[in-house]
Design goal:
By secondary structure, the protein is an alpha+beta fold. The chain is built from 14 helices and nine strands. The radius of gyration is 32 Å and the shape is elongated. The structure holds adenosine-5'-diphosphate.
Length: about 475
């Protein structure tokens, strides 16, 4: 009965599966019509109508917010089946079929799913719910045992119909064998099925005493669903982090190898060949810039481990922001690509900031180097201004910009934009992480404002130093 959203999670093409979805949708439709007719003939009490409406509402809500269950690899699982099975046991097959149709149809309509998919999914729910109701009926003899056995049988029927039809459509679209696929789904969904079957039995027994008492189930159900969502989110973040780490190792190996190869090649040439002064000078310059690149990379890696182990306490002292910034900008100007200029704009006078001068320099160097590295041309503006008890440092470039959705993420460890967006410029994804950690440690804030094609402005604020 775990209605795992195989259709939602994988790219199943229903057009390739007409032979499955049309019969399911048609038989679901016929069953629904018979169910409505049969309900119309039953003299339902107000009590029953309210109960059915409540179960439909609960099933629709649960269907709209499926729960991703860890270890169940076939997408997210809808808890709607608990309510449909309970409805089937308590109110019979016809009410359950209508409830199944409404829950699924409302959600599919809200998500604007394609007709074939919505029709198939509604058909599955109508048939599974009607089957569950039919089977439950056979066990009911007015005793508590009969009711419980009925609920268990209903749950089992719902589950079997559900995964059998889903496996049929999936195997049809992928052209794989039915038997192994069904066994695979059964294995993947069996544990959530048993949990939901037990919950359905509890719900049925409580409901039998009084629908109002059954409301106590809402709390634990909601808590379980929220907990599962939370755990799933946390694990996904860990998986993503693990992937970034792997990518980082590949990037670092590459970034270490490139300068090493240049240094090695230049040194070998110098050693083996008689060269004129100019050529010698060129090669020595290669050695020194590439060695500097290596040392920069290793510094970044060392800084990350220092920050992670918490052994990088800053030494806060009053610092004059302007001379320090000028020093960094002057150093950057010595190796600018042609077509790029760096300028400083500042309020005057500027108060002193409470900062660690080495760490502040490190943050500025990083932001200015990024601005230079990613924009390659245009103007880089470094602005200093005072803002309500802080000094704001901003580095603005006219580079490719950063999409809004990525603007938080680039401060994460190892995170880099798609190389297409940055024209393949190399990096490790550590620089901004280090900047954020250092600014945090100096009690400041750092952020970026940017739009693709419109450049980026990285800003951070540090508190003004207290007068002694
Ligand atoms: P990296 O070593 O890759 O430069 P950073 O942590 O400094 O690592 O930056 C993370 C990512 O943010 C970069 O890979 C790049 O995609 C993006 N980025 C950083 N600064 C800029 C900028 N000034 N313009 C555009 N993209 C930038």
């Amino acid at each position: 009965m775990a209605h795992t959203h195989i259709l939602r999670s994988s790219r199943v093409r229903l057009d390739a599966t007409v032979a499955v979805w049309v019969p399911v949708a048609v038989s679901g439709g016929v069953t629904l019509i018979v169910a409505v007719a049969s309900l119309a003939q039953d003299n339902l009490s107000w009590h029953d109508i309210v109960g059915i409406a409540l179960l439909i509402a609960a099933a629709t809500l649960a269907e709209a917010f499926p729960v991703p269950i860890e270890g169940v690899a076939v997408g997210s699982t809808s808890l709607a089946t608990i309510f449909l099975v309970a409805g089937a046991t308590i109110y019979g097959w016809a009410a359950a079929a209508v409830a199944g149709f409404l829950a699924m149809a409302l959600v599919e309509l809200a998500w604007r799913r394609p007709f074939s998919r919505a029709a198939f999914n509604c058909g599955v729910y109508v048939l599974a719910a009607a089957g569950a109701g039919g089977v439950a009926d056979r066990f009911q003899d007015g005793t508590l045992l009969g009711l419980s056995l009925g609920a268990i049988a209903a749950a089992g029927t719902f589950y079997v119909v559900n995964i059998a039809l889903l496996a049929a459509v999936v195997t049809r679209s992928r052209g794989v064998a039915y038997g192994p696929t069904l066994t695979n789904y059964a294995q993947l969904t069996f544990v959530p099925f048993t949990v939901m079957a037990s919950l359905a039995v509890i719900l049925v027994v409580l409901w039998d005493r009084s629908p109002f008492v059954a409301v106590v189930l809402v709390g634990p159900l909601l808590a379980t669903a929220l907990y599962q969502r939370w755990i799933h989110g946390a694990l996904n973040r860990l998986r993503e982090f693990d992937r970034l780490k792997d990518e980082f190792i590949a990037i670092v190996s590459h970034e270490l190898r490139t300068p090493l190869t240049s240094v090695y090649g230049a040194a070998m040439t110098l050693e083996k060949q008689q060269l004129d002064d100019d050529r010698q000078h060129q090669l020595l310059e290669i050695i020194s810039t590439e060695a500097a690149r290596l040392s920069h990379l290793l510094d970044d890696i060392l800084w990350v481990s220092r920050l992670d182990s918490g052994s990088a306490r800053p030494y806060i002292t009053p610092v004059e922001p302007l001379p320090l910034t000028e020093e960094v900008v002057d150093a950057a100007r010595t190796h600018l690509p042609g077509g790029l200029s760096v300028e400083i704009l500042h309020d005057s006078p500027l108060p002193e900031v409470a900062a660690d001068p080495d760490r502040l320099r490190q943050v500025l160097v990083n932001l200015i180097e990024n601005a230079v590295k990613y924009s390659r041309e245009g103007r880089v503006q470094v602005r200093l201004g005072s803002h309500y008890g802080t000094v704001r440092f901003s580095v603005r470039d006219e580079g490719p910009g950063i999409p809004l959705s990525q603007q938080e993420r680039i401060f994460e460890k190892f995170y880099r934009l798609d190389p297409n967006m940055t024209k393949g410029v190399g990096g490790t994804g550590l620089g901004l992480y280090i900047c954020r950690e250092l600014v945090d440690a100096m009690n400041g804030d750092i952020w970026v404002e940017s739009a693709p094609g419109a450049g980026s402005t990285f800003s951070f604020e540090l508190p003004v130093a207290q007068a002694p």
